[in-house]
Amino acid sequence: MISISDPPSRPEGTHEGEEDLSPEEKRVLERKMKKILKKEEKKRLKAEGETLKKTEASGPTAPQQALDYLTCWAENRAEWKFQKIRQTWLLQHMFDSEKVKLIAIVALLHLL
Question: Which regions are flagged for Basic and acidic residues bias (predicted)?
Answer without folding.
Answer: 40-56
